[in-house]
Amino acid sequence: MTDAGTQSSVQIPMPEDLDFDIEALRRRYAAERAKRLRPDANDQYRMMAGGFDHYNDDPYVEPGFTREPLHEDIDVLVIGGGFGGQLAAVRLQEAGVTDFRIVEKAGDFGGTWYWNRYPGAQCDIEGYLYLPLLEEAGYIPKERYSFQPEIFAHAQRIGQMFNLYERACFQTRVREARWDDDAGRWEVTTDRDDVFRARFVIMSSGPLNKPKLPGVAGIEDFKGHTFHTSRWDYSYTGGDTTGNLHQLHDKRVGIIGTGATAIQSIPHLGEHAQHLYVFQRTPSSVDERNNTPTNPKWVEKLKPGWQGQRNRNFTALLDGIQLEDDQVRDKWTSPLKKLGDLLGSRDSDLSAEERALLAEIADFQKMNEIRDRVDRTVADTGTAEALKPWFGQWCKRPTFNDDYLPTFNRPNVTLVDTGGKGVERVTEHGVVVDGTEYPVDCLVFATGFEVGTAYVRRAEFDMYGRDGRSLDDAWAGGMRTFHGFLSHGFPNCFHMGLTQTGVTANFTYMLNLQSTHVAQLVAEVKRRGSTAIEPTPEAEAEWVRIMSLPNAMTEYQKACTPGYYNGEGTNEGRGFLQTTYPEGALAFYDMLARWRDEGSFEGLVVR
Fold first, then answer.
1. How far apart are CA 143 and CA 147, in angstroms?
2. Using an 8 Å Cβ cutoff, are 560 and 391 in contact?
3. CA 162 to CA 8: how far, in whole Å?
4. Which of the four, 89, 151, 422, 560, has the lowest number of CB atoms within 10 Å?
5. Of 498, 494, 489, nearest to 567 (Cα)?
6. Whole-number pLDDT of residue 3
């Protein structure tokens, strides 16, 4: 693209060669963004507190659990028992650090895959990429895209193989973490009256653990049954993760939300409910799934190191690196092939502006395919039009499902499109949209997790660093880290996840690389006999500056509809894809490896 009045030298396809009007699509995308913008941004969601805290309870454990409090001096406390916490524990052991505890609020390992047991729950990332430590565990997923039971079982497998259960404190919530500068330790207390005095704390509580509710008036007045998809109530619906929700045959069900979770659960609700109302604010991009069983002949050809190589290949392609060899070849990487076809052999000769325009054309082509698929699948033209996503491929989390769109051909399924405004209110007996009340017996919230809210709110406890300063105060103006892991004034506290690091679509690959980095830093500090490690204020400020620089993704997100990717459209640099390394995930982790190998810990103070 060019500024008004300037002439572009980009050799784009001629208008007659395209089956769409570029300017018309830009205008349509802008109009869709405008009507979905809200002044309250992330404040539109309700906290799971007061009358809503039961939505955050654990339905998978027996009530009344008690144990004796623990009072321990340890090397490392890992907070979170999802794949991130498990990987941190495994890499710590590999680095020779064995004196650690894992604190997890759930009743078992698994993180996201412990909580999310809704019907149809499945990972959108290929299982051969997503399930970590496959080679170490000697396990191959049964299908290309794994369902929740298999993923949860793999988390339990890791816990058993690496002796993590004996170090884990389940059904335990951290109350507070406070730094003792004289002792060089964190004192961490829990709701089980534990007191852990840890030299290091690793924060791996994850972004997909705390459910959120929409800020819709009247939710508390509804007289029917309600639950959040991450706490699916099978005692009410019947069935299990495979479906068979037979107890809904005489029930009118409403579901609020049409994101990744809803895409997978709605086909099962539509199959079994007497009537299903799907309340949609913004449609998702729904591409083909095409799941297949694992081919044993393919498995026989795998060589040691295959999972790391496959993940690196996948990540490189999503970073926009042109590779001839696409080892995964699925719908995540197919949009990049369109760009490669347009670029041809000219990539190195193009300006950044020219390349951006061709990338935009490739994106339009991909999203036109998505919208055409809706027309081919959904019989009612009005419903089909409402289900079309008018935004770019990477504006919202892409979804992949072969049963979602056909569900709207069922006579007992009604799409209630809210025109981007969301549900108006909830009454005692139904949901109101545009003045019309839709009566329901059960209301399901498929409204996701607190991804874009304040870090401490998501972690569900506060940390107090040197001089008693809280992390909430230190990050009041946004995250402040060095390399995404350490913050000045909070020694020996490592953050994992989406904290100013290199983010890629496959979270477990990201967490594996992060845990390797953290474990090696912990081991090196111990080897040196040092007390504490933290960044200098200058190094932290420089990293924040780097993370604030405009890049292709932050510019892309400015034209996107509101969502957690862009801070609900605020573009204030706090969205899911707005605090990532500007040169891409692989460049970030390669940089970290060089930084470690250099050995001087530049930017850090080691006391």
1. 8
2. yes
3. 58
4. 422
5. 498
6. 40
Q: Using one digit for the tens of pLDDT, what is the confidence trace for 20-61?
A: 998 999 999 999 998 888 776 555 555 555 566 677 789 999
Cβ-in-10-Å burial (0-12, 13-18, 19+) of 305 comes to: exposed
The rounded percent of the chain whose pLDDT value lies above 90 is 72
Using pLDDT thresholds of 50, 70 and 90, give the confidence band for residue 10. Answer: very low
pTM of the predicted structure, to 2 decimals: 0.93
Model confidence at 128: pLDDT above 70: yes
**What helix, strand, coil percent values describe the chain, rounded to 5?**
40, 20, 45
Three-state DSSP class for 73? strand
Question: In 10 A of CB 434, how many CB atoms?
Answer: 11
Average pLDDT over residues 566-589: 74
Where would I find the beta strands (DSSP E) of 23-150? 45-46, 71-79, 100-103
Across 179-188, average pLDDT: 97
How long a stretch of residues is the chain?
Answer: 607
Q: Rounded to an integer, what distance in angstroms lies between the CA atom of residue 264 and that of residue 79?
A: 29
DSSP calls for 588-601? HHHHHHHHHHH-S-
Both structure tokens of 604: 């850090």
- The Cα 269–Cα 459 span in angstroms is 32
Q: Is 556 exposed, middle or buried (0-12, 13-18, 19+ CB in 10 A)?
A: buried
Domain 213-289+398-445: state its class.
alpha beta
Which of 539, 538, 551, 537 is closest to 581 using CA atoms? 551
Angle at alpha carbon of residue 505, lines to 561 and 557, rounded to 5°: 25
Which CATH fold would you assign to the domain 71-210+453-530?
FAD/NAD(P)-binding domain (3.50.50)
At residue 529 the predicted structure's pLDDT band, cuts being 50, 70 and 90, is: very high
* CATH 3.50.50.60 boundaries in the chain: 71-210+453-530, 213-289+398-445
The vertex-141 CA angle with 138 and 142, nearest 5°, equals 125
**Token pair of 325 as six digits:** 């060899």
| Angle, helix 352-377 to helix 22-36, in steps of 10 degrees | 70
Of 460 and 207, the structure prediction assigns the larger pLDDT to: 460
**Interacting residues of 162 by C-beta distance below 8 A, sequence separation 6+:** 86, 89, 90, 93
CA distance 458 to 124: 24
Radius of gyration (Cα) for the chain, nearest Å? 24
